Amino acid sequence: MGKQKEARQNRLIREIYNFVCVNPGVGSAAIYGYLAADLKMRNQGLSARKIGFFIPRYCKKYIRIEKRSEGRMYFPIESLDNKIEDV
After folding, report:
1. Is the separation of the CB atoms in 8 and 44 below 8 Å?
2. Which of 19, 21, 52, 61 sits a CA distance of 20 to 30 A from 85?
3. Burial of 83 (0-12, 13-18, 19+ CB in 10 A)
């Protein structure tokens, strides 16, 4: 994997984890809204569906997934600090 792609992926993991720590129990649409609107990550090719695929693949060490009737909800894993310094 190239350096820029790896750096972008690590930033995305950090930002998703930090958002889920502040707002436990959110869905992928809320995470996408935060990334696109608040962090201005619009040019990354993100969508709520892609976030839903990204989290189980790359964030399973940091984020726990619960399937509920309203969809998948994401929670931080309790044993980690509130911030990830190096992924």
Report:
1. yes
2. 52
3. exposed
Under 8 Å between Cβ of 75 and 20:
yes
| CATH number for the domain running over 3-76 | 1.10.10.10
Tell me the two tokens of residue 70. Answer: 């309203």
Q: Tokens representing 46?
A: 């993100």
pLDDT digit string (tens) for the chain, length 87 residues: 789 989 989 999 999 999 999 999 999 999 999 999 888 887 778 899 999 999 999 999 999 999 988 889 999 986 555 455 555
Q: Among 62, 58, 36, 40, which Cα is nearest to 48's?
A: 36
